[in-house]
Amino acid sequence: MTGPAIIDVARDGIFTFLKVGGPLMVLALLVGLVISLLQALTQLQEQTLVFVPKMLILLAALLFMLPFMGDAMAGYMTRIAERIIAGG
Fold this sequence. Notes:
Helices cover 90% and strands 0% of the residues.
């Protein structure tokens, strides 16, 4: 396998990782920001207040996005398998 082919595989893997994990990370960031803003406005400084809503919203988003995430990972595996079959 040549250097540019390795870079293409790595680039494809990074883009797949960002497509799969990026939306959930952005959602977690936004939920945490909203709850932190709410805590700052109400002066309610409970550390566990952030955890439960964030986990529930991320679980719902994960269930909603699971087909998209599976398709993205399956597509990446298909591209890798095609490279293996082609010999590089």
